[in-house]
Amino acid sequence: MAPEEVGMRVLLTTAPWNGILPFFTYRAKRHIKVDDIGDKNLLLQLCMNAEYQLGMEWPNGALALIKENVPSIDVLEYPSWEEYESRLNEGRYDVVAFSFYRMNIPQIKLMVGMARDYGVGEVWAGNYGACSPGMDRLFDRIFVGDGIAPLKSLVEGKNLDHLRHPILAGKIFFRYPVGYLYTSIGCRFRCKFCSTRHFLPAPIYTPIEEVSRILNEYVRRGIQTVTILDETFLQDRKHSEQVITELHARGMLWHCTTRISLLKGRVRRLYDMGMRSVYTGVESLTNHTLSTYSKGHSQTEVLDVFKELNALGVRTTVTYIIGYEFDTVESVLESIDILKNDIAPFCNPFLVLTPHTDSHIAHLEPLINDDDPLHYDTRHLVWKHPHLSADDVQELLWIAHRETVHPKNHINNKIVRKLEMIEAGNPPLYSDQVHQLYTCGRKPQAADKLGGRKYAV
Q1: Domain ranges in the chain?
Q2: CATH 3.40.50.2300 fits 10-20+60-156, yes or no
Q3: Whole-angstrom distance, CA of residue 391 vs CA of residue 385
Q4: pLDDT tens for residues 229-241?
């Protein structure tokens, strides 16, 4: 069947749950017990996994949104290999479409081969992994962006009149009901390390009438807490104020992902309107790096915003990137000290600077020395850094998590204690050089850029 024909039978799927990186997602089928894990790398991955530490699992919003707006598509989310093959064996699909990330490519290639072997006419690709090098030779069609409207037209021969939102209910901290909400998809900001600036630079907003409908359904189900899953909530002031008004009118508490610059000067009011936790990207604490990578805030602005958040008891989750070309062991340790003492997030997933496809850090691409797609997970150094080795970065990740673990984050405390047991009486987990600098308490060379503070040991 030609792609232009409508009424085609499409299966939309992901990489198998037992084929993607351990602990990355789909915790429901993993039954993770920290006490049973003895591998330092798996434990470090858990340290970097905010979902696991918050006792929640973010739904695959992209698939849910597509299914809600293109209902004729069948969705198979994180199948086992057996479940996937069973669907292919039914012989009723004209197209298999894959939503994946670059780190999923080895599994996706196998799945594409299986689909072709079972006589599937076409294979399509979407999500960030579809933009990875070589994917245009593997797939018949690639969707860049949300893909909902193009799929609606291709598969059902209809235009997308407005974005319809699915019911997405779950739990946080393993027991408290929560409803998930996308008020927008995409991000208008231009941080250079982020691929969204190419993938979805023009946000798509959920109509406020649709937001109201979803919130009414959550209230009907007894849900009084909402997690806003937007990549950047508050980016459209008028629309976000309407959403906040709808939440407040129902007496709902809410959490969101947003930017420091959008919180500046607004923390008290947002708290009064029901905001109780924030997930935000600090990404760096050196002004030169923040400016070079177009992050849009300064160190002072970060500290001012967190002073307000912490004074009100707002629970915070912070991402921070290690491995900018300006980073040294000393400067990273200095930043860890500031994170620990002045920001004090409840959860702090540290990430590694990665030249993802279509991010605006092409100057690093000639330095790439690791093409293994499994390492494109923001957890590995994949390029030749001027000051840090791959092992140095892993040791810094471990130190960062140990130093910044929040006393009330019981899950992360348990992970850190297990890693400390593995390290006790043994060589450093990753890098002897970094470990020596960390333990000797040497004054950082970059202290003048960060206010002259001395990192904690």
Answers
A1: 10-20+60-156, 164-449
A2: yes
A3: 11
A4: 999 999 999 999 9
